[in-house]
Amino acid sequence: MAAYDSILNVDEWISDHYFTTDETKGESFTKRVKTRTKEWADLENETGTLSPVKRFQQYRGDLQKAFATDADAETTDGLIRKAFGFGASSTKNYNRAGEQLSYEGWHGNAGTLIVLNAQPDEDVNEDNLVSLSVTGGVTPAGKDPQPTKVSKLIGDLFLAQEPPEFIVVIAGTWVLVTERESWPLGRYLAINLQLAVERNDTKKAGELERVAVILARENLERAADGTTWWTQTRDESQQHAVKVSGDLRDAVRESIEIIGNDVLARRGEQQLPLDAIDGNDLARQSLRYLYRILFLLFAEASPELAILPTGTPEYVDGYGLDRLRDQILDPPVTDKARHGTHLYDSLQVLFAQVNHGHDPLEAPDADTDAQNEGITFRNLEADLFKSEATALIDEVKLSNDALTRVLQNLLLSKVSAGKDRGFISYATLGVTELGQVYEGLMSYHGFIAQEDLYEVAPKGDASKGSWVLPVHRADSVPQDSFVMETQQQEEGGTAKVRRQHPAGSFAFRQSSRDRERSASFYTPQVLTEFTVGQAIEVLQEEGRITTSEDVLSLTICEPAMGSGAFAVEAVRQLAELYLKLREDELDEQVDPETRTLELQKVKAHIALHQVYGVDLNPTAVELAEISLWLDTMTSQLKAPWFGLHLRRGNSLIGALRSTYSTAQLKKREWLTAVPRRESVENLAKAIDAGETRDINAAGRIHQFLLPSSTWGAAADAKDLKTLAKDEIAAMKAWRRSVTGKVPTKEQTKKLTNLTARVESLWAITLSKMRIAEDQIRRDIDLWGRGTEHTAKNIRREQIERELLHNEDGAYLRLRLAMDAWNALTFWPLTATDELPDLDEWLSALTDLLGTEATARDSAQTLLGRADNWDELVQLERTEIELSGARKIDTLLANHPWLHTVKNVASDQGFFHWDLDFAAVFARGGFDLQVGNPPWVRPRTDLDALYSESDPWFSLAHKPTQAQKNERREQWNDDPAVREVVYRGLAESVSTAAVLTDVTRYPHLIGQQPDLYRGFMELTWKNASAQGTTSLIHPESHFTEKKAAPLRRGAYLRLRRHWQFINELSIFDVHHLVGYGIHVYGAEQVEPLFNHATSLYHPATVLDSLSHNGSGSLPGLKDDNGNWDLRAHRDRIQTVGLHTLEVWHSILEDDSVPVLESRMVYTVNTEAASVLEKLANAPRIRELDLQFSRGWDESIDKKKGYFDTGWAHSDSWNDVILQGPHLGVSTPMIKQPNPTLKHNQDWSEVDLEAMPADFIPATAYQPDRTAKPTYDADYGTWGGISAKEPYRIAWRTMAAGTGYRTVYPAIVPTQAAVIFTLTTAAQINDPRKTVTVGAFMSAVLMDFVVRSSGRKHVLPEVVDVLPMPPISERAEVRLVTQFLRLNCLTEAYAPLWEELMGEAWSVDTPLRKDEERRAAQVEIDAIVALSLGVTADELCMIYRTQFPVMRRYDQEDRFDANGRKVPKEIVKADAKLKDGAQLSEADRTWTHPQSGVEYVYEYPFRQLDREADMREAYARFEGMAGGSKV
């Protein structure tokens, strides 16, 4: 380990493991030192300038002499400054709380580094460095110098208006390095120069080189390119911590299995029953136990928070986790030691002290005069430490052997060949990394194996989920499917073996289906910070936050919480903002030495009182609470309880306080009309005014009392129509009976009465919740603000007992009614016999809610005066008794179908915002909503459902549809399988039904039921009048035609829109995935928002907002082929009504309102101006093309029209083309390989050697035996088969950042396509068909499609592409070149001969690469001219929008014969010395498809597309005699 006593890493200023490890394979400080010193050495060789290492070595001897002889401070200081490149001190000024002060110091480049001097004492050491006095003191304006501690001046300078990044302090033989963000945490580097120069260790990356690298001016000040070496190094250290957290996730997963299996083993040894143990419960308790340990590790790593008495010798010796670090390095060896529980018992003592607290002065026999009676633990009284949280573990304890392995996992870095295994740093591994650990486990579940099981996954890779397979069925899946693990062998060494879960063992695994459904992708901190920061800026811009008190009045919500990362970040940023605003208001500043503590108190106040969150996963709620707690811990915060604010539930499925008029019942309008949401704020005002009713809701009917059109949604599961035929018929009949009739007068009367009961119960619930909210507050002293002391008259236990868990109370009665309304949408097909008719529904609601009577109005008036909890509870009991509502036990007995309601509600977690967070909505809603909601869409994946029982459905290699159907039949009689399939399909169909129900999500009508869209509308509805919402979510609503209502709503609410592409893999999803950060406010009259697209990192946005507009325009990639991160003012576009009008003219027809126009994505404003030029051009739709999507790859395959199978057909009539077959203007550029492994298992076709009758291989074959109507069912155009004419085909999937977006080519008659291709033709005019194809092949048309942001190039996209009239000469050239590019075989002869009037031959088409490229360039130029786009603009579009094409153009070489030289020959040629050439043999290459041998002749040339475009443009411009072709 590279640790030196001369270099002290105080409180882990940088991760200890990163800083001290010698490994160079991964990231480490050692590797950074070696790389930096090599850079300096290379620069020294080039320029002759002394490197910083040599500079230090030059002064080392003088320094050693000065230290040894106690030279005067001025001499020593001068030598140190010269050795590390610092300048001499001079007087510098700064402002503090409106006062100007001066000090002696030196500033580096742009003030990013400050060097100070301290007066060293005789006994200066690392412990008293920061308490030394600053040389010369600090001088207020007009006054004498004041003695000032180093710590005080550093804190002041870091809080200045323009603070430095680093401050260096020279104190005799010591040098201190501090950094702005870590200084408040008490972290810094201290270097004892005397020790280093005396030892004179000159090894590579040894002590002297490390000191030189640490202290060199060149590394501490900002360089000319805007980077700082030390900032980058600390960032890398943090990334190292993030990677450690990834390892820690695996360690936690493994540790859960260790604990679970130890619990089962010990229960067996103690003869305790195992049958009643639920695997998931055991997993949750194991996770809680691990988080107890993690909590203590974090608390110990943050001594400044005073959570644990870490500084006392008694704690270190008797309780500290350092003892455990020592013990795990020496694991138990005897059976007795391994089975003992010493480690468990030790931890339990610590857990108890932390939870219950210990104050030695409160002990009965305490000696109050004693100087050292003992150590003090604060009582946290946290849910995490409750005994019931780990009851299964505590019942049997944990063995030393199990806990040793667990602690090794938590404390030591991952075992890896060639790397040190160091202790994990919990000082640098923060709460956000802890969240990453958790979110990676969200889709895992625990179970106890009932038989011996293997774990299987695609190719044995369980990272994306896995399945279990009984050992006796091991032969039923491909043999590469088994998950392998390294196991110690008895004879020594290790071996890879199949991961097995023996019968009776506990397993904790990730279900592939659950992973997809949970959409649990951790949001990296860089995006969390940016998303929250953008929202807070908008809150300030729009006046919601102007004062520090405004910060403390915000209500904050993370509606899809996960680990609470966004809530934690909101708390952090708002706490900082509070202090900043309060400092400005008071014109004074927080003492830098107490700022961290003061900030922590503000964070605690905000987290406890202002943060709300919801998540469907109950463990997520627990761990989000832990995350908030860990990040806001303060010695003043005892027993924090988030139970009213952080709730388990499905944010998207529930009921609101929405109503209909009684008139809307008469024509069943409530089934399709949008209800009116009744403000809870109005109800609160009525209560406060002592009124008996909210008059706004009087006489109306609550939506959740009426039948819903979504009830019995499972009956619409198409995949179950055969399997559950009878159940579906029964459910449909019931649905018709309850929704098909208007309620009778008697039923309407009951509904009216029930509505009154709902309002009464809601008023009671709201009153109790408001008091409860007040009572859970904690008194926390905030800087600059008087403490508001809250009288605590009720305890948490009362709130839980008399509100949250009181089934006979008003709150849970309302909840059960709402749950029942939602449960009937999710009703299981297996319980159709329980479904209630309308009379039973109303009867059950009456028994549940009671009957309203005017005689009780006097009791109701008490509500406004009942500000006492006990009075409210008594009023509630009286009111419910008088109403005649049944006890819940009686209710369930009388209406047994409600048992199923409760089960469904428990499973689905319905959440009722207006009720569950009634106190928030009484104030108007949420002021700040932030998060990254799920990106998934509920879908019915039969294979995934059957895979839960038989993994073959997901692991078999391209099985035919017949094989799948046959195998399903084998399982359909299995009750367990039927239950999984029924529930899985019903859940997906029911969720989709809710999200497409116009009464609940009117903006989503007629759209795909993406969950993120539901969250958009939900957060809009839940926002306060001045509220701001900032969400990370996909953008398909901006480009999907049917999403017009949602798009319109978004445009009118957006304030900022930043679209990102995941090319830097910031998210753990595919690199091509696009997403946006969307900041919404209240609806505006007209759209107005900032907008930028094709971003890769948030820093680009922040820097672009302040950019001066200089420099070249950014594109998708920079000139070096890297994704373009350059900031530029022209990236930011302001979108208003005019912009939408331009987008509309490009993408829409007159039937679409401007506010519903789809979005255009351009990377800079100049590209946007090119699109504006195209706005008024005629469109392709004017040609009246016919379109076909061909066969559907999934649906039509299931129907039996075709199946998987490789073949070379003899006739085009048997060909089914796929997307990869086509290139740009090339109808058969590739063909599939016989192996059909995956979608990239294709090979290029040799165009030069292509025979006249060539037909490419295909991966799908028609099945006319199963479907004799194969040809007739393909579709028709105007009475002819859609296969009959020559057509333009293109890849349906748009590759927005690839070589090209659109790949159009002509396909022959009779060939079919699947929907990875789309086809079109003008069936009466083949010339127009060809002209359309030529236009579509042009780079300018590709840019239009790319800018649309569409993921699929559907007919509606092609229809709106511009296609102006062109001159006959230009059209002839356009058609000729496009035909010569496409007519590669005799299948095209009729088309060629019809349009060109001459016979086709094998020499007709262009076959060599260079001539084909030249023809395409001509097409690009002609199309640009026709649209009035200049040559400069055409080249700019190519340069900024098509980086992959540009890179290929830079890499490609063409030989003397115009052939593109294979890459391996280009690489071999590039390795030669100047003037040398490859031999003919080395230049010979055999095409793998044709087997033809080619010799590539010198010279090898790089072509210039921009020059060729300009030349072609000029040539055709001259031919046309002007700018119009």
UniProtKB/TrEMBL annotation:
<keyword id="KW-0949">S-adenosyl-L-methionine</keyword>
<dbReference type="InterPro" id="IPR050953">
    <property type="entry name" value="N4_N6_ade-DNA_methylase"/>
</dbReference>
<dbReference type="InterPro" id="IPR011639">
    <property type="entry name" value="MethylTrfase_TaqI-like_dom"/>
</dbReference>
<dbReference type="GO" id="GO:0032259">
    <property type="term" value="P:methylation"/>
</dbReference>
<feature type="domain" description="Type II methyltransferase M.TaqI-like">
    <location>
        <begin position="609"/>
        <end position="941"/>
    </location>
</feature>
<dbReference type="GO" id="GO:0009007">
    <property type="term" value="F:site-specific DNA-methyltransferase (adenine-specific) activity"/>
</dbReference>
<dbReference type="InterPro" id="IPR029063">
    <property type="entry name" value="SAM-dependent_MTases_sf"/>
</dbReference>
<dbReference type="GO" id="GO:0006304">
    <property type="term" value="P:DNA modification"/>
</dbReference>
<keyword id="KW-0808">Transferase</keyword>
<keyword id="KW-0489">Methyltransferase</keyword>
<dbReference type="Pfam" id="PF07669">
    <property type="entry name" value="Eco57I"/>
</dbReference>
<protein>
    <recommendedName>
        <fullName>site-specific DNA-methyltransferase (adenine-specific)</fullName>
        <ecNumber>2.1.1.72</ecNumber>
    </recommendedName>
</protein>
